[in-house]
């Protein structure tokens, strides 16, 4: 299971910074389900860190792990963009089979045949 290491760079406690923090916490809770470490770095308190990481604008989110390193700029309000940018992998679930389907989930193939436990076939 991959753990995500995320660093969010902000500049002071502005409305945009607070939105970015809240959005990131919500996305992590919904999508990463405990598989992450999150650190918030305030560049007002540590401007040298911003220079070391070449932060030009804030808020900036850097995904350090798993590779590759990714940067997302903004208040993180576009969940799909953030999830895509983080290359979020699905969490392991006991009710998901090797095909990625949840148990009881029906899938229609190209021929129109329905497979899976929810197909209604008792054969």
Can you tag this structure with a few keywords?
single chain, 123 residues, alpha+beta, 4-stranded mixed β-sheet, two-stranded antiparallel sheet, 3 helices, 23% strand, globular, disordered C terminus
Task: Present the secondary structure layout.
Elements lengths: L3 E7 L4 H18 L3 E7 L4 H6 L7 E6 L4 E4 L5 H7 L21 E2 L5 E2 L8
Parallel strand pairs: 1-2
Antiparallel strand pairs: 1-3, 3-4, 5-6
Overall pLDDT level = 81
Strand content: 15-25%
**Counted beta strands:** 6
Question: What spatial form do the alpha-carbon principal axes imply?
Answer: globular
Rounded to the nearest angstrom, the distance between the terminal CA atoms is: 36 Å
Helix and strand sequence: EHEHEEHEE
- Roughly how much helix do the residues carry, as a percent range? 25-40%
How many strands, which pairing sense, and closed or not: the largest β-sheet?
4 strands, mixed
Q: Please give the radius of gyration in angstroms.
A: 20 Å
**What order do the strands of the largest sheet run in, or round the barrel if closed?**
2-1-3-4
- Put simply, the count of helices is 3
Low-pLDDT parts are 93-112, 114-123
Classify the oligomer. Answer: single chain
Structural class: alpha+beta
Protein described:
The chain has 123 residues and is α+β, with helices and mostly antiparallel strands. It is built from 3 helices and 6 strands; from the N terminus they run E-H-E-H-E-E-H-E-E. It has a 4-stranded mixed sheet with strand order 2-1-3-4. A hairpin with a 5-residue loop joins strand 5 (107-108) and strand 6 (114-115). The protein starts with a strand and ends in an 8-residue tail after the last strand. The model is unreliable at 93-112 and 114-123 (pLDDT under 50).
């Amino acid at each position: 299971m991959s753990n995500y290491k995320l660093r969010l760079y902000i500049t002071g406690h502005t409305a945009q910074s607070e939105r970015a923090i809240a959005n990131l916490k919500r996305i992590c809770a919904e999508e990463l389900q405990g598989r992450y470490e999150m650190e918030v770095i305030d560049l007002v308190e540590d401007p040298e860190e911003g220079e070391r990481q070449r932060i030009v604008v804030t808020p900036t989110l850097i995904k350090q792990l798993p590779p590759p390193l990714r940067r997302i700029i903004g208040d993180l309000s576009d969940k799909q963009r953030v999830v895509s940018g983080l290359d979020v992998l699905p969490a392991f679930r006991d009710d998901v089979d090797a095909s990625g389907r949840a148990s009881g989930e029906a899938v229609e193939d190209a021929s129109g045949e329905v497979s899976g436990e929810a197909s209604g076939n008792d054969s």
